[in-house]
Write a structure and sequence with these properties.
This protein has 404 residues and is mainly α. It is elongated, with a radius of gyration of 28 Å.
Length: 404
């Protein structure tokens, strides 16, 4: 088990720090709770140095990790029997992020004025999304907020871990692509202009690709600011385009049809969908409302459309597995069939939870394989690009020497 360096606060406001063995942060938080301590922050032994830079970084919002820690602390404090106002007193004191501190203060003031808990949280939609608010409202109405925050804490933690794995798998390809772009800029701006006058003075017929590179080099040198502005404009335009309906459709169509990416995209989206439905069902939210909330959280347009169509069918009395069957091509093999088994046995929530865990593990394995597969491919592509630039310069020089 790893060693965690933690900082905790007692319910009377005293701060305590130390190190302890624990399986994970959830177990650490539970152990501290048994000692009447509230976990504020924790770092595994190997991560201690990494977090030491946090004090110099500006805060532009509330990070996903801060949201997870906030939810976990809410669960622990509800289980300790503290009042809502006291809970947000403590949360405000322990918050290092100034924006989060202001939010905790705002929620506490609304609670003091008599607003409901879910209504107070709803004033901050960027922090507490529809999924979060719907579960809190159910817990508020049924008196099961402790259980709701336990479910939310687990759900958010697993979702964050999955997204982190996916982002980690994409770091290396991004580095390679940026390297390729940097090589292109260096060759075009600094190398080609120096060779262009020499090559043109040879009075030989230059290959078309050499002429194109020379033209690009001359243009880049003359209008150097375009080399900076054009990529920025293109990237900004791309991100604006994929936010439109047609842009999202083109993006998701490409991702879901590319052989190397398709299994990864299907399983990662199915994992988010199934885990969300499992968490919502476990909290007692109706199936139709669960589908509506899950649909609002889906970023992939194909999965979102599948849920939107399923909602109408479920409202008419059709089972979820039957409503999703026309879209089984976008789901991993066996997902719809397992949903059907859950419906027939009355264990839908349990089956969905196990399915989410199974596909989550498969996605993690796919991210590892993705990195292994993409690494040599990107190196080959990078090598071909470098070879293209080299041949474009060397071939005319070799031809001139041959003619001499």
């Amino acid at each position: 088990m790893p060693t965690f360096f933690y900082k905790a606060k007692s319910f009377d406001g005293q701060t305590q720090s130390g190190s302890v063995f624990a399986k994970d942060i959830s177990q650490l938080a539970q152990n501290l709770k048994n000692d009447n301590l509230l976990l504020i922050s924790a770092n595994a032994e190997g991560e201690k140095q990494k977090t030491s830079w946090n004090f110099i970084l500006p805060s532009f919002g509330v990070s996903e990790v801060e949201k997870i820690m906030l939810t976990r602390n809410l669960w622990i404090m509800f289980s300790a029997g503290l009042s809502l106002v006291k809970i947000f007193d403590i949360l405000q004191l322990q918050a290092k992020n100034q924006k989060l501190k202001v939010i905790m203060q705002g929620i506490k003031e609304r609670l003091n004025k008599g607003e409901s808990f879910s209504s107070a949280l709803a004033q901050y939609p960027k922090i507490f999304n529809d999924f979060f608010l719907s579960m809190v409202k159910i817990g508020e109405e049924s008196g099961t907020l402790e259980g709701i925050f336990e479910i939310l804490s687990t759900h958010m933690d697993r979702d964050h871990q999955l997204r982190s794995k996916i982002k980690g798998a994409l770091i290396y390809p991004c580095i390679i692509v940026l390297t390729m772009m940097a090589v292109g800029v260096v060759v075009s701006v600094f190398v080609l202009p120096k060779f262009s006058s020499f090559l043109e003075g040879m009075n030989i017929d230059l290959p078309i690709y050499t002429k194109i590179l020379i033209a690009i080099g001359n243009l880049s040198q003359q209008y150097w600011y375009l080399s900076i502005l054009v990529p920025i404009v293109l990237v900004y335009g791309f991100f604006l385009a994929i936010k439109t309906k047609n842009g999202r459709w083109l993006r998701d169509t490409f991702l879901i049809k590319v052989p190397l990416l398709a299994p990864f995209i299907k399983k990662s989206n199915a994992t988010v969908l199934i885990r969300s439905l499992s968490s919502l069902n476990a909290s007692g939210i109706s199936q139709v409302r669960s589908l509506e909330i899950t649909s609002a959280t889906m970023s992939n347009i194909y999965f979102k459309n599948a849920l939107d169509q399923a909602i109408e069918k479920v409202k008419k009395g059709e089972k979820l597995s039957g409503a999703l069957r026309p879209y089984e091509k976008i789901f991993p093999l066996g997902a719809i069939e397992m949903m059907e088994v859950g419906e027939e046995t009355g264990k839908t929530t349990e089956i969905l939870r196990k399915l989410a865990e199974f596909y989550e593990q498969e996605v993690i394995e796919l991210t590892k394989n993705f990195s292994v597969i993409i690494e040599p491919l990107l190196i080959v592509v990078l090598g071909l690009c470098v070879a293209f630039f080299a041949i474009s310069i060397i071939e005319p020089m070799y031809s001139s020497l041959t003619s001499i």
